[in-house]
Design a protein that fits this description.
0% strand, mainly alpha, 275 residues, 12 helices, globular, 73% helix, single chain
């Protein structure tokens, strides 16, 4: 836990590394990360128009629901899927640079937050298109988003260690996330389920994770049960890590002890400028 706190305080390191990843990915691109925004916007417009006709719902009702759900699900799924390779994709850095391992998870987290910020342009466009028909609850959204971001970050830690130790886990998690996408109300609304099937959403933690941010974005206050689910999801990893941190790190360290990183701490900013 001390390594994680120390890493979180080193904001200049993981933020700079996250920005470097984005620059490298879109090095010779004109639009840069906005290509993701553009492709997401086209998908939301096309599928939103299609689903409104299939489900027989009004565009002002369905479009904000679908847009907010798609954008936030992209953030959730990207963080979980990329956490599976949170150490393996940075193997070269880990072997050569003396940085705490949580820095690489914070690097992924910051990178996904930057992509999410780009995609939020779509929600602004939706609000403009609807002409004030939807009034977001900003305060509740900020609170829900902070809780969601923190929970995803805490969840990334055991996922990254387990996937570094057991290489069969990443494809399993990726397949599970694909199934969860269809079981979670993203392109379909919860009220379409019959009462006897309400357990599909009631016992789905990803539905509650979406609801505490999508509800305020669409002008609806989330139910208290969703807050309870997310608070529990945030507290459980902390309690588990306090008891098992040393044991899990010894079992799942992605590098043997004889291949530990060098002792010198590099100047990240100087390295980025030289590239």
């Amino acid at each position: 836990m001390s390594d994680f706190i120390k890493s979180f305080r080193s904001t200049n390191q993981w933020l700079l590394l996250a920005w470097y990843d984005i620059r490298q990915r879109y090095r010779r691109s004109v639009l840069g990360p906005f290509w993701i925004t553009l492709s997401t916007a086209i998908m939301i417009l096309a599928l939103g128009y299609l689903w409104t006709h299939i489900f027989k719902v009004d565009i002002p009702t369905f479009l904000p629901f679908f847009a907010a759900g798609t954008i936030m699900w992209g953030f959730i799924s990207a963080q979980i899927n990329e956490a599976c390779s949170g150490f393996s994709q940075f193997e070269g850095y880990i072997r050569q640079i003396n940085l705490p391992l949580p820095v690489y998870l914070l690097r992924l987290w910051a990178r996904n937050l930057i992509f999410l910020a780009h995609n939020f342009v779509i929600m602004i466009g939706v609000y403009i298109y609807l002409g004030g028909a939807v009034k977001p609850l900003i305060g509740q959204f900020v609170l829900g988003f902070l809780l969601l971001s923190y929970t995803l970050l805490m969840l990334s830690v055991p996922i990254a260690y387990l996937c570094a130790r057991f290489r069969d886990i990443p494809p399993i998690i990726q397949n599970i996330m694909q199934i969860v996408y269809f079981l979670t109300p993203i392109f379909w609304q919860p009220h379409l389920l019959p009462v006897e099937k309400s357990y599909v959403t009631g016992n789905n933690p990803f539905f509650h994770a979406l609801e505490i941010v999508r509800g305020p974005l669409t002008g609806h206050a989330p139910q208290m049960v969703s807050w309870y689910w997310m608070i529990a999801s945030a507290v459980v990893p902390i309690m588990a890590r306090r008891r098992r941190t040393r044991r899990c790190m010894a079992m799942a360290d992605p590098m043997p002890a004889k291949m530990m990183r060098p002792t010198a701490v590099p100047n990240i900013a100087k390295m980025m400028r030289s590239i």
